[in-house]
Design brief:
The complex is a heterodimer.
Chain A lengths: L1 H9 L1 H19 L1 H4 L31 H37 L1 H15 L3 H12 L3 H28 L2 H8 L4 H37 L11 H8 L8 H28 L5
Chain B lengths: L1 H28 L4 H8 L6 H11 L5 H13 L13 H36 L4 H15 L2 H15 L11 H31 L2 H8 L4 H23 L1 H14 L5 H11 L2 H29 L2 H4 L6
Helix pairs in contact in B: 1-13, 2-3, 5-6, 5-8, 5-11, 6-8, 7-8, 7-11, 8-10, 8-11, 9-10, 10-13, 11-12, 12-13
Classes of the chains: A mainly alpha, B mainly alpha.
Chain lengths: 276, 314
C-alpha cells in the first residue's frame, strides 16, 4: 500500500493536482476584494469573538472583524509577497550568476566571495539583522529576504554556466558572432531552467514560512492588515477561549507550503535534479 | 593530519573577516543615524548638540577605514559596545542570557538525535513498513509546518487543554518539554529521512552481505556495521543545520517566553538597539563557522579517507 502511495506522490498527477491547488490559492489572493464577504479591517465591537454564523462563516476575531475575509486577504500578502520575493531574487540571481560564470576571472571571484559571506550567516538571522537595522515593515522584510535569497539562484546559475560554457554549441554561437548577452539569453538561460524551477518551488514554500514568521514576530506586516502569521499572533491572545482564531491561518499556511513542497519534490525527482 | 587541521583552521579566517565586515556594514547601510537611534532608545530628546556629541562619541565623524579597524579591535576583545536601552555592556547582557538558549539548543539536539536515529534505522530496515510511512509523513509536515504555530498547537493541547505542562517560562524540566519538541520537530523530520536514505544505501552494500554471510547477528550487522557509515551524513547535516536551530530558538523563545538570547535579539530589533543586533549577527555567524569546523574535524576522525584524498590515487 505504501508503495502505491510512494509512486502516487511522485507522479504527473500529483504535480497536476498540486498545481491546480496552488492556482486556486493564487486566484483567491488575486480576486480577494470580490470574493471576501466583508471588509477585512472593519471593526465591529458589538460582534467580537462571535462563533460561526450565516453572516460570518468562520466567526469574528477580537475586534469583530470577519475571519473568512481576513484569511482571504491574508492570502494576498503571504502568496503575493512570496511570489514577489521569488521573482525578484530569481531575476537578480540569474543575472548575477550568469554574469559571474560567463565573465569569470576576478569578477567571478568577487561575486562568489560575497555569496559565501552571505551564506556564512544563518538565513533568518541575517534577515532579522537587516530588518532590525531598517526597522519593521513589509517593504524592509521584502528587501532583506531579497538580499539573502538571490545568492542561491546565483550560485546554481553560475555553476551551470561554467559547465555549459565549454560545450560546442556555445562556442559555435560565439564564433558566429553572437554577443555575450545574446548567448546568455538564448543558450544559457533555457538550459538552467530545470534546476531553477525545482529550487523555485521549494523556495516559495520557504518564503511563505519566512514571511509568516517575521509577521508573527511583529516585524512584517503592520496592523490592522491581515496576514496569516500576524493572525496567528493575534489569535494566541485568545488561545484559552477561542483557539480556532490561531488554528485557521496555521492550517492554511501548512496546506500551501506542503503543496509547494510536494510539487518541488515531485519535480526534482522527475527532472533528476538534486535539491540544495 | 595536523596539516589538514591547520588548513581548515586557516580557511576560517577570511570567513570570519567577512562576518566582521557585514556586521560593520549593518550600521552604515542603515537609514537611521546611530546617534539618533541611541537618543530615541534612551528617551532623550535629540537636540543638534546632543546628536553631534553622540556622533563624536561613537566615532562616526572619523573615516570609514579607521572606524572599521577600531570595530575589529573591539570585536576581538568581545567589546560590542553598550546597549542603547540599558547602557550596560552588551556582552554582559548576552552572557546572562546565553545559558537559557544553550539549554534549549542542547536539549533539542539530544532529543532530535534520540528520536531520529531509531526511527531512521527502523524505517530503513523495514522499508515501506509503517515506521517508514510515519517518517515520510513527519518529513512532509516538518518541512511545511510553521514553527511558531506548532509551538502554540502543542501549548494549546498539552498546557491549556490537558494542563499537563506549564504554558511558558523557564524552570524545571517540565518547562523544557514543549519548547524542545517544537524546536526538534523540523530537525527530526530532516534527520530521519536522511538517515533512512543513507542506511538503505549501506544495507545494499557488499560488506553488509559479507557480514551476514559470516553469520553475524542481524542486529550487529545493522547497528555496528551499517549505522557507523550511515551516520556520517547525519553529522554533517547537524553542523549545517545549526543555523536552522539558531533561528528556531528565536521563534521558540518568543512563543514560550523563554528568557534567552533570541528573545533579547527580537526586543533589540524593536528598540533599534544596534549594538545588540550587531552582536547577535556576528556571534551567529561565528557559531555557524565553528560548527562547520567541528563537523569537518569529526568527519576526519571518523573517516580517515579524507586525509589521504588525492594522495591515494597518485
Amino acid at each position: 500500500m505504501s508503495k502505491k502511495w510512494h509512486t502516487a506522490l511522485k507522479g504527473r498527477h500529483t504535480i497536476a493536482a498540486c498545481s491546480v491547488l496552488i492556482l486556486f490559492f493564487f486566484a483567491v489572493a488575486i480576486f480577494a476584494p470580490w470574493i471576501a464577504p466583508h471588509d477585512p479591517v472593519k471593526v465591529d465591537l458589538a460582534h467580537k469573538l462571535d462563533g460561526p454564523s450565516a453572516q460570518h462563516w468562520l466567526g469574528t476575531d477580537h475586534l469583530g472583524r470577519d475571519n473568512l475575509s481576513r484569511l482571504i486577504y491574508g492570502a494576498r500578502v503571504s502568496l503575493g509577497f512570496a511570489f514577489v520575493i521569488f521573482l525578484s531574487s530569481l531575476v537578480l540571481g540569474i543575472l548575477i550568476g550568469a554574469l559571474s560564470g560567463y565573465v569569470g576571472g576576478w569578477l567571478d571571484n568577487l561575486i562568489m566571495r560575497v555569496c559565501e559571506g552571505i551564506m556564512a550567516f544563518p538565513n533568518l538571522v541575517l534577515v532579522l539583522g537587516i530588518v532590525g537595522i531598517f526597522g519593521p515593515g513589509l517593504m524592509q522584510v521584502l528587501l532583506a529576504l531579497l538580499m539573502v535569497q538571490w545568492v542561491y539562484y546565483a550560485r546554481i546559475c553560475r555553476n551551470m554556466v561554467i559547465s555549459l560554457k565549454e560545450r560546442p554549441f556555445i562556442a559555435a554561437a560565439r564564433v558566429s558572432g553572437s554577443s555575450s548577452w545574446q548567448i546568455i539569453r538564448r543558450h544559457i538561460i533555457p538550459n538552467v531552467q530545470r534546476p531553477i524551477v525545482v529550487i523555485a518551488t521549494l523556495e516559495m514554500g520557504w518564503a511563505i514560512m519566512d514571511i509568516s514568521a517575521l509577521s508573527f514576530l511583529g516585524l512584517g506586516i503592520q496592523p490592522p492588515n491581515a496576514e496569516w502569521g500576524a493572525m496567528i499572533h493575534e489569535g494566541t491572545s485568545h488561545i484559552r477561549s477561542h483557539p480556532e482564531l490561531m488554528i485557521y491561518p496555521g492550517i492554511l499556511i501548512l496546506i500551501v507550503v506542503i503543496t509547494f513542497n510536494i510539487v518541488g519534490e515531485a519535480l526534482s525527482e522527475r527532472y533528476g535534479v538534486a535539491k540544495r | 593530519m595536523i596539516r589538514y587541521v591547520g588548513k581548515r583552521m586557516l580557511a576560517i579566517v577570511p570567513i570570519v573577516f567577512i562576518a566582521t565586515l557585514v556586521t560593520f556594514a549593518l550600521i552604515h547601510i542603515s537609514p537611521v543615524d546611530p546617534a539618533e537611534a541611541y537618543l530615541t532608545a534612551a528617551h532623550i530628546y535629540p537636540t543638534p548638540e546632543l546628536l553631534e556629541q553622540k556622533r563624536r562619541e561613537f566615532g562616526l565623524d572619523r573615516p570609514l577605514i579607521e572606524q572599521y579597524v577600531d570595530t575589529l579591535g573591539r570585536i576581538a576583545r568581545l567589546d560590542f559596545g553598550s546597549s542603547y536601552l540599558t547602557n550596560r555592556p552588551v556582552w554582559d547582557e548576552v552572557k546572562a542570557r546565553l545559558p537559557a538558549t544553550a539549554e534549549l539548543a542542547v536539549s533539542s539536539i539530544l532529543f532530535s538525535v534520540l528520536v531520529s536515529v531509531p526511527l531512521g534505522v527502523l524505517a530503513a530496515v523495514y522499508r515501506r513498513g509503517w515506521v517508514d510511512l510515519l517518517t515520510r509523513a513527519i518529513a512532509y509536515f516538518g518541512a511545511s509546518i510553521p514553527q511558531f504555530w506548532l509551538g502554540y498547537l502543542l501549548m494549546f493541547f498539552f498546557a491549556v487543554k490537558l494542563d499537563l505542562l506549564p504554558v511558558e517560562g523557564r524552570g524545571d524540566w517540565r518547562n523544557l518539554v514543549l519548547p524542545t519538541i517544537t524546536l526538534s520537530f523540523v530537525l527530526i523530520a530532516l534527520y530521519t529521512r536522511m538517515l533512512r536514505t543513507a542506511m538503505s544505501e549501506q544495507l545494499d552494500e557488499t560488506y553488509v552481505r559479507y557480514a551476514r554471510t559470516r553469520g553475524l547477528r542481524e542486529r550487529s550487522v545493522v547497528l555496528k556495521h551499517a549505522l557507523k557509515v550511515a551516520i556520517m551524513p547525519l553529522i554533517t547535516s547537524m553542523g549545517m543545520n545549526m543555523g536552522r536551530l539558531l533561528t528556531g530558538t528565536i521563534i521558540v523563545e518568543q512563543v514560550f517566553s523563554w528568557p534567552g538570547f533570541g528573545r533579547y535579539f527580537v526586543e533589540a530589533i524593536f528598540n533599534r538597539d544596534i549594538p545588540v543586533i550587531q552582536c547577535y549577527v556576528f556571534l551567529a555567524a561565528c557559531l555557524f563557522i565553528v560548527c562547520n569546523l567541528i563537523v569537518d574535524l569529526i568527519q576526519m576522525y571518523m573517516d580517515p579517507r579524507i586525509l589521504t584524498e588525492g594522495r591515494a590515487n597518485t
